[in-house]
Amino acid sequence: MPPGAASAAGAPFVAYKRAAFLEPDTTPTAFALELAEKDLGLITELADALGVPTPQARTNLELIRAAWQDGRHGNDFSTIAEHLRATRASATRT
Fold it and tell me: Is pLDDT of 21 > 80?
């Protein structure tokens, strides 16, 4: 068992998505970025209609859309980790 696997951070979902984060090019898509974008779009639209603030959902939606524009639209939603690493690397180079 990898270090930390029995901790709260080692939840079953983390084990389930481990390969997608570590080997994204060889791991099949389980939940496409397009579906995450669609779901968050529906959530924020309903929240707007009800007047409910959803700052985290909006942040997530913006991040997904940025990853989409970065050419990751056909990937699993775990590609967000790659997108964040690329964004951070780009920011440190400038």
Answer: no
Residues, the chain: 94
Dump the DSSP string for 53-74.
Answer: --HHHHHHHHHHHHHIIIIITT
- pTM here is 0.72
CA 49, 54, 59, 61 dihedral sign is: negative
Write out pLDDT tens, residues 32-79.
Answer: 899 999 999 999 999 999 999 999 999 999 999 999 888 887 888 888
Max Cα separation, the chain? 46
User: Is domain 11-93 annotated with CATH 3.10.450.50?
Assistant: no
Work out the end-to-end distance of the chain between its first and last CA atoms, rounded to an integer number of angstroms. Answer: 39
Radius of gyration of the chain (CA): 15
Measured distance CA(88)–CA(29) in Å, rounded: 24
Q: What ranges do the domains of the chain cover?
A: 11-93
